[in-house]
Design goal:
Elements lengths: L2 H37 L5 H17 L1 H15 L1 H21 L3 H4 L2 H31 L5 H5 L1 H23 L2 H8 L1 H18 L6 H4 L10 H7 L1 H21 L1 H9 L5 H29 L1 H25 L3 H19 L2 H6 L7 H17 L2 H10 L4 H20 L3 H4 L6
Helix pairs in contact: 1-2, 1-4, 1-6, 1-8, 1-9, 1-10, 1-14, 2-6, 2-20, 3-4, 3-6, 3-19, 4-6, 4-10, 6-19, 8-15, 13-14, 13-17, 13-19, 13-21, 14-15, 15-16, 15-17, 16-17, 16-21
Length: about 425
């Protein structure tokens, strides 16, 4: 097999695993509106969603731990080894949700089991991001790193689309009562089986040249060394992740619920609108990746930062009163296409900031911190503002945190020129 063919196979293989990881992760968010009553006592729908959103946030709280443990593991034992372990943990978490007892049969044990499952998935995704970002960035060619690394978010969004697609099929063939009773379990069972298959696939991937070039005595990755040697990079990655992750979760996972709870669409219509918008968002990733290869990373990052601050309040305000699915689709596309300028290269920019011996941890840990504090709590904060009767405050909250990320973008070097990934 030629070097280029081997490289392409590795990128495709790594991306396929990423798709399954994020399918399992987003299945929870997409199905929360159905299984919330099963795990929590009946009552106000917003209160039930707040409970499931809190458990969603618990998964994010495990991300820094997963990033820390598996970031070090990936730096010391190899990128593909870290990828295999992360998808194995996701398999276990999804299987546990698929077979979890309901509140009616197990009482408080039911939400407790759900918490444990989300903790496993949080550990998995915490390690997955750093390993996947590092693997794809190191496998890509120097001149096309933006394009090839953009496939991390292509597959991430594809995972979300598959989850939404499965939900849409279930909505067509099952009644609301059947979905709430047992139908919501099906996507988690599918995810567990797919994750097991990808585990086998990832064990057969090629290792990156960056890792193989390291001498064993240079594999000294640790959180202490990361903070000691790269404090500025750590803070910058956490800051840009805060704005990017909050925007991503606000305009993807939470927005489906927003279209139901605030805009007034039925669940199926909201799913269709978000599925169509996410397809366009996914296809925009390689386009922005190519632009970053040609013009540099910082122009794309600043386009997202400035654009995100300008459109967040107007778009959310318009969506709150929109009445037709087509109009909702058009409005959702505005922030998503701006956000794509960031998501397409966010993993690459982080990977280019760190040397090989600590790269996986350097990408994973500060990302997990920023993502946990702002991405993982996005839905909970939005619902809290809604419950307090000041839903519009969330729109401004998103704008301010994107502004923090924009300040960090200005402080970043142009990593296309200063990249610490030396291999071609």
């Amino acid at each position: 097999m030629s070097i280029d063919a081997k490289r392409l196979k590795s990128i495709v293989g790594g991306s396929a695993g990423n798709l399954v990881e994020w399918y399992d992760w987003y299945a929870y968010a997409a199905l929360a509106i159905y299984f919330a009553p099963v795990f929590f006592p009946k009552g106000d729908p917003t209160a039930q969603l707040l409970s499931t959103a809190a458990i969603f946030a618990v998964g994010f709280l495990m991300r820094p731990i997963g990033a820390w443990i598996m970031g070090i593991y990936g730096d010391r034992h190899g990128r593909k080894a870290g990828l295999a372990v992360s998808v194995g943990l996701m398999c276990a978490g999804s299987l546990l949700i698929a077979v979890a007892p309901t509140y009616a049969t197990a009482g408080t044990w039911a939400p407790a089991i759900l918490v444990v499952a989300r903790m496993l998935q949080g550990l998995s995704v915490g390690g997955e991001y750093g390993a996947s970002a590092t693997y794809l960035s190191e496998m890509a060619t120097r001149e096309r790193r933006g394009f090839w690394s953009s496939f991390q978010y292509v597959t991430l969004i594809a995972g979300q689309l598959v989850a939404l697609g499965v939900v849409l099929v279930l909505q067509i063939f099952l009644s609301e009562a059947e979905l709430e009773a047992w139908g919501w379990r099906i996507p988690f069972a599918i995810g567990a089986v797919l994750a097991l298959a990808v585990y086998v696939l990832r064990r057969r991937l090629a290792e990156t040249a960056s890792f193989e070039a390291m001498k064993p005595d240079r594999r000294e990755s640790s959180a202490r060394n990361l903070w000691r040697d790269h404090p500025r990079e750590f803070v910058l990655v956490a800051a840009i992740t805060a704005g990017g992750s909050l925007a991503f979760y606000a305009y993807t996972t939470y927005l489906q619920k927003f279209l139901v709870n605030t805009s007034g669409f039925d669940r199926q219509t909201a799913t269709v609108v978000m599925t169509a918008a996410l397809v366009v968002f996914m296809l925009a990733q390689p386009v922005w990746g190519h632009i970053a290869d040609r013009f540099g990373r910082k122009p794309s990052l600043l386009f997202f930062g400035i654009g995100g601050m300008l459109v967040s309040v107007p778009v959310f305000s318009a969506l709150a009163v929109v009445r037709t699915p087509l109009a909702a689709f058009g409005l959702v596309l505005i922030p998503l296409l701006i956000l794509a300028a960031y998501t397409s290269i966010s993993a690459l920019v982080k990977a280019e900031l760190f040397p090989a011996h600590i790269r996986t941890l350097g990408v994973a840990l500060p990302y997990a911190v920023g993502n946990t504090l702002f991405g993982g709590t996005a839905e909970y904060v939005a619902l809290w503002f809604k419950g307090a009767g000041v839903e519009s405050a969330f729109y401004w909250y998103v704008t301010v945190i994107i502004g923090v990320a924009t300040a960090a973008f200005l402080m970043l070097p142009e990593t296309k020129r200063t990249s610490l990934i030396y291999e071609d």
